[in-house]
Amino acid sequence: MRKKLSKDFYLRPDVLVIARDLLGKVLVTESAGIRCAGRIVETEAYNGEADKASHAWGGRRTSRTEVMYATGGVAYVYLCYGIHHLFNVVTNSRDIPHAVLIRALEPLEGLDLMLKRTGKNKVDESLTRGPGNAAKAMGITTAMTGTSLLGRTVYIADDGYRPAATDITAGPRIGVDYAGADALLPYRFYIKGHPNLSGSKSTNNLS
DNA sequence: ATGCCGATGTCCT
DNA sequence: GGACATCGGCATC
Q1: With contact defined as beta carbons under 8 Å apart, do A163 and A19 qualify?
Q2: Nearest alpha carbon to residue A87 among A96, A74, A97
């Protein structure tokens, strides 16, 4: 039984708490009556204007990033390296550009459609590992940016699953070396040892 | 197991 | 023109 997360979940002021709470929740998309779902196993928090790794660093506003300043509970999807569509959840109040990047999923439902979208012929760990792959499998594109997460096409739900607190780990974000000291902040959250995690063994604290 | 490379839209200098 | 919240393939250790 899945219960869609309410607006209040996204309006909370601490994006780090939200990024952590999203671990174990279920991301759902629906298109042409077919549903796909995946459990969130890796996230990254982007902490607003003060965070040098964020697209909203220094209060930058462009047509691409404008949606980060919207009231929490909408999608921010942007094109990375001109190829990959990356899915983020916008949080906090209007004009506070907090967001959480969904970096990896455990596939749960709609596997046939995920395979079709990604052009793969079998389900393996790579199907939803990493933000580009996860969005592709779920059918998420930049066309969805600004979409409410309280609707039907894309949302996040709680099915009662709770990761063990001892399995939740925080570490530095991936691919943000340009952000100087902010690159070292432990803003990446993940379920320790999960097979769908992005990053290397060392970044996942596995020897 | 690790490292380099190319693909390429949006933003910045 | 260059950098970038990435990925898969191929080369090399």
Answers
A1: no
A2: A74
Nearest nucleotide to A64, CA against C1' atoms: B10
Cβ atoms of residues A193 and A41 within 8 Å: no
Q: Which residues touch strand B (CB under 7 A)?
A: A 60, 62-65, 78-83, 142, 200-202
By C1' distance from the Cα of A79, the closest nucleotide is B9
pLDDT digits (tens, 9 = 90+) for A147-202: 999 999 999 999 999 999 999 999 999 999 999 999 999 999 999 999 999 988 77
Q: pLDDT tens digit string along A61-101?
A: 999 999 999 999 999 999 999 999 999 999 999 999 999 99
Return the number of other C-beta atoms located less than 10 Å from residue A6's C-beta. Answer: 12
Structure tokens at A183: 């690159």
Residue A179 token pair: 């952000």
* Residue A118, φ and ψ in degrees, nearest 5: -90, -10
Structure tokens given for A33? 């009556």
* Arithmetic mean of pLDDT, A30-36: 95
Q: Which among A18, A152, A148 is positioned nearest to A75, based on CA atoms? A: A148
CA A39/CA A168 separation, integer angstroms: 14
Which residues make Cβ contacts (< 8 Å) with residue A51, sequence separation at least 6? A57, A179, A182, A185
